Amino acid sequence: MTNEPSTAGANAEAPSVASRGVEAGRGASWWGEGWRLFVPSVGPWLLIVVILIVLQVCLQLIPIVGHLANSVLFPVLAGGLMLGCRAVDQGEPLSVSHLFAGFSTRTGPLLIAGLLYTAITLAIVLVVAGILLASFGTAVLAQLFELQNPTAASRALGHVLLALLVGALLFLALYLPLIMAMWFAPALVVLRGVEPWAAMKLSFSGCLKNIGPFLVYGVIGILLAVVASIPLLLGWLVLGPVTIATIYTGYCDIFEEQPVS
Length: 261
Known about the structure:
Elements: H1 26-38, H2 42-60, H3 65-89, H4 107-144, H5 150-183, H6 185-192, H7 196-208, H8 211-229, H9 236-255
Helix pairs in contact: 1-8, 1-9, 2-3, 2-9, 3-4, 3-6, 3-9, 4-5, 5-7, 6-7, 8-9
């Protein structure tokens, strides 16, 4: 069982929060500990996942605004789920209300984290688009005007595919550090009262110190994702909640004195 959570608004404790490195094998343990947080509250977890899917679909139906809202609100929802994981970890019941607990606990800092995440994501997209335009734009556009020539069309298609590959690699290279910065940020904000930017920096350093555990965690996660996807993606109703719980268990392992037991 983890330590008692700090008061959410106790910013005075924030400077004492520090990350530590753990053994690579702990990456596998996070999955087992996440499963243990899932089993006592299967019903609420499944309902939470269904609500999240419905919210995602509804937001995706709203052009641009829906995508931005989804990006800004995700730390708020994630923060609520971290509170839910803490409740289960302490033997308390999980409820659907935990999904929205971030709207009443540390809402401002969680929204700021969401705004930072959204702004940085947009900046990454613009940087990648600018690099691609500068590197491939003129050549591809010139060849597109000669599409009646089969040779030119083939060349243009090759340039487009190369541009897409380079763009994807560039985006991943720039986006991965942002994912690392956001991985534990909601938990740090709601459970330790850390301010948004400091939480993102702590999360990044925590991930960086634990590349080994995350590699093990990632390999297992890929295998589980394949298995969960086979029965018409229905396995994600279980893998989704367990994955959410692993973020909490990893946070406890790296930032708190005692991991989940």
